[in-house]
Amino acid sequence: MDLATCTYQEFTPEMGAPIRTTAGHPRFTLGYELRGHARLITPTRELLAQNLPQDAYEFSYRRILNGHGIDRIYAELAGLAGRNGGARLVLLCFDRLDKLPPADAWCHRLHFAKWWLEQTGEPIPELGAQRPTPPPSLF
What we know:
The chain is of the alpha/beta class. It has one domain (3-120). The protein is built from four helices and three strands, in the order E-E-H-H-H-E-H. The protein has helices spanning 45-49, 54-68, 70-83, 108-120, and strands at residues 3-7, 17-20, 89-93. It has a three-stranded parallel beta sheet, with helices on one face. The termini are far apart.
């Protein structure tokens, strides 16, 4: 299955089929139409309301993913891909990683991509801008 991640703001139609993975719908005008909602990988409103640090958030989010299981999540994503003619699914959320302080440059879509790789061996590329890695110091 062809998957990628990005933000609502950075997505462009040539990337693939835009798929919502957020608890709320974007409150700003999109220049494209969403082609589905991946509900099983959407963080719950309860999880989001806790405002947890990254490690605790990832632990709780993984519990949600593991609770649904890879088979159900794969089936949901395969169904979305089928309804979109087999196009690459671009899993969208709000967090612009290049606009966040380095310690906060994470979001659920990156945690999902890591979990998916562990479950399937298939990497999910991030298509949005990411904070550049500083060059190594000579000293």
